[in-house]
Amino acid sequence: MTYELRCRECGKSWGNQPRSICEDCFSPLEVGYDYAAVHSVLTRERIAQRPPNMWRYAELLPLPADYTPHLPVGFTPLLSAPQLAKHLGANRLCIKNDAVCLPTLSFKDRVVAVALAQARSFGFDTVACSSTGNLANSVAAQAAREGFKAWIFIPADLEPAKILGTQVYGAKLVRIAGSYDQVNRLCSQIADERPWGFVNVNLRPYYAEGSKTVGFEIAEQLGWRLPDNVVVPMAGGSLITKIKKAFDELIQLGLVDPKPVKFFGAQATGCSPISTAVKAGNADIEPQRPATIARSLAIGNPADGHYAIKAITNSGGWAEDVSDAEVVESIQLLAESEGIFTETAGGVTVGCARKLYQEGRISPEETTVLCITGNGLKTTDALAGQYVAEEAIAPKMSVFDKYLESVLDSAIQSRQNAGATVEA
Ligand SMILES: *Cc1c(COP(=O)(O)O)cnc(C)c1O
Ligand SMILES: [Zn+2]
């Protein structure tokens, strides 16, 4: 085995087992690798010859020795975003588009893929999770494909599309009358009692490693170069720390040239324990009670909050947060400028990026990657009331001509009413 669990604080090695906390010092466990062994086999050329999915970085993932993946997860597009760049006052802007990650249209497919590989090798026949929505979809779908039974625990008031998008795969869905943080606490208790593989509880160290593939792909898609800045939405705070770990590993293995990268964290103001701590200069978070439409990010007591703060501040980055109204505007801005429909978490990323450029914390000439982590079709309720359905017209040319005239007239009129203001 070229990897094992190690305590992040005391360094004690725990081998490989379904466990997320060090029993000696109660700190989180992290997967460590034998990088010398990886270095001797992993080259850019070898990676390039493999299929375009996250398994091309297998040597840097904690996978069982005989593991054969079934699903082509990841390797989502890295797109240049010239129109959005104009709106933000940026010059070199890219979007990592996990709104189209397969199989369930969010970056959570990456973490679940790794967790289920380990669930099988640990002998679990049932997998489970506590979820703010996307994880639920991904565990349910991949459990169906891999032949696991699945138990999914969610706050009762999640978006309908995320509930349906879990049930359709035949998973057992348990709706809890409480917040995500309460759901998560319950799951920790259940994990102690039952022989279930909870992907984000007892399998968490393995699960979290899947997020590194976002970082590997960004570097490879930039031509094996690191960006200057990344803007990452934060819930539990794991993804942002794992993109950093990915970049550090690529440097260590000589796959990219060393270069400082600034990490910028994005949250919704209604649930902003990490950005609040960064702004206040605190090393630890103070838990919050979430109140935001960005449900996928609504974790008031983030498990990796402390480490996210550290990654951000040590890199010279920053954290921002935006109101729900800004989330909606930013979803619309990304859709209208780049043709990408993201969920509320993506609105948080774009809205925070806009602020970071305005504040001068990101310089326009630097290469900046925005992480769009989920798909807008799952959170259409966030746009309720934004678009009125026009009255239907008869299928006749004459009626259409009249209709067009009235539409153009009212457009002219509203422009006149708005005075000579510039186009927004
Ligand atoms: C879970 C999630 C995140 C944040 O992930 P963490 O690793 O918990 O910080 C970001 N975006 C979306 C869409 C998510 O579902
Ligand atoms: Zn320890």
Which tags fit this structure?
alpha/beta; 3 domains; single chain; 424 residues; Rossmann fold; 15 helices; six-stranded mixed sheet
Task: Describe this structure as you would to a colleague.
The structure is a single chain. The chain has helices at residues 35-41, 44-48, 82-88, 108-121, 134-146, 160-167, 180-193, 204-209, 212-221, 238-252, 273-280, 305-315, 324-338, 344-358, 397-417; strands at residues 3-7, 13-15, 29-33, 78-80, 92-97, 126-130, 149-155, 172-176, 197-198, 229-233, 262-268, 318-322, 367-372. By secondary structure, the protein is of the alpha/beta class. The protein has 3 domains: 78-104 and 211-383, Rossmann fold (3-Layer(aba) Sandwich); 108-208, Rossmann fold (3-Layer(aba) Sandwich), CATH 3.40.50; 392-424. It has a 6-stranded mixed β-sheet with strand order 4-5-13-10-11-12, with helices on both faces. A 4-stranded parallel β-sheet has the order 8-7-6-9. Strand 7, helix 6 and strand 8 form a beta-alpha-beta unit. The mean pLDDT is 96. Residues 106, 108, 134, 233-239, 296-297, 343, 345, 373-374 line the site of pyridoxal-5'-phosphate.
